[in-house]
Design brief:
By secondary structure, the chain is an all-alpha fold. It has one domain. It has 3 helices and no strands. The protein has helices spanning 2-20, 29-49, 60-81. The chain is globular and about 40 Å long. The mean pLDDT is 86.
């Protein structure tokens, strides 16, 4: 069940990261989900390093960190694949 939750969280985080990035990103849905999953994993790890405590509700700080990490990863992916952003 944790894997399904991670995939869903990755899809949400990846989509939100793309939403907050300027312009159009030529990135497919599968790459968005994969980078979102990596963003969630790194974001939660960074939040732990920063001392963010887990709560019984929604961990807003962890989600914000994960969105930022996923946006950076999408930007790196676009830069590495040589695809240009169109505004």
């Amino acid at each position: 069940m944790e894997i399904i939750g991670l995939i869903i969280a990755g899809a949400i985080i990846g989509a939100l990261a793309r939403l907050f990035m300027p312009g159009r990103q030529p990135v497919g849905m599968l790459i968005t989900v994969i980078l979102g999953i990596v963003g969630v994993l790194i974001g939660y790890w960074l939040a732990g390093l920063l001392g963010v405590q887990a709560t019984s509700g929604i961990d807003w700080i962890r989600w914000i960190i994960s969105i930022i990490v996923a946006a950076v990863l999408i930007g790196i992916y676009i830069a590495m694949t040589g695809r240009r952003r169109t505004v």
